[in-house]
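Key idea: predict the complex, not the pieces.
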Amino acid sequence: MSDTTLEKSGVGPVEGASLYDADNPAPVIEAPRKRTAKTPRSTRGNFEMAAWLFMRLSGVVLVVLVITHLLIQLVLDGGVSKIGFAFVAGRWASPFWQVWDLLMLWLAMLHGANGLRTVINDYAERPNTRLWLKGLLYTATVFTILLGTLVIFTFDPNIR
Amino acid sequence: MATPTMDKVAADDAAAASHLITVTFRIRRFNPEVSAEATWEDFQLEIDPKERVLDGLHKIKWELDGSLTFRRSCAHGICGSDAMRINGKNRLACKTLIKDINPAKPITVEPIKGLTVLKDLVVDMEPFFQAYRDVMPFLVTTGNEPTRERLQSAEDRERFDDTTKCILCAACTSSCPVFWNDGQYFGPAAIVNAHRFIFDSRDEAGEQRLEILNDKDGVWRCRTTFNCTDACPRGIEVTKAIQEVKRALITRRY
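Result:
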């Protein structure tokens, strides 16, 4: 009754008939990466545990390494203004600081890369996105570690 | 004789009515048979502030809008069917008093997150129960069945007492940010129920369960955000249980 009066007054219903009904329901919004009886497939190995342990242990070591590094580089003995080629060359003349910097490079890069790996695992929903992001991450990590290691071991203070 | 009695009843009614306050329930509605969009809908009702959110939902369903859909069974915090997101926090509607959640403002009620919403406050619990099944939540033993009960010392029972309280309401799992983004993660509830058997002296499949939880989507994905501990309506220290499983994985083997 009210519908007909609306039509007579020239004002139609604001929206058309619903697209959905009991026989034709709207699609529900699926949760991402739902668990089913078939997924995830179980994998053998302790990699996740090793990665978790590595994060804790490397974190503790890095606190010492990085804070000492920052103190020497930026605070003690004249601060940041003293840093130059000669300063770096002088430090790397000692095997102790070579090992120190090498350890710091490897631990920090692997720690950061593993952290980003877990972030990608947590937030990238599609398998392809994961694959590409992780590929990019691993490439960058390996490149930086290799380049840094090469420089520490082949450093020549008399370079022209 | 009749008149004084009626007066008394009327007086009682007036006294009872003064207890009632007006509360707005803002409920997340979704009905796939009407629309693909979920919308907020406000309901105003007169209710005693000492009543629970579930009583408010009942009032709405029974007196205002019969199409409101939600799960509840025992209505006393035991069956774990009415976990929902009330004022942005996962709680059991049957254990949340209206006076405790600031009735001056609208009370928002949403379905729990991370699971597919089927209608209004009802979600698809299947992925949640799949993770539960995957940790083998039952006693596993070898050898002959004893003729009497399996005895256990009080200390051995105390070891896993906290995790026996779980009612599988999914409040913890659906408050976990890792689970929201990746449903392949076991989630806190499954780990709690694995913990209940891993640390049970009568059970013999602890090593097997640890191996299951050592996997890619097992305990190592936990970021210790403590959302699960905050959400648990039974007060289980969920994050602590997960950490104990991690510790067992490391110390029982090395």
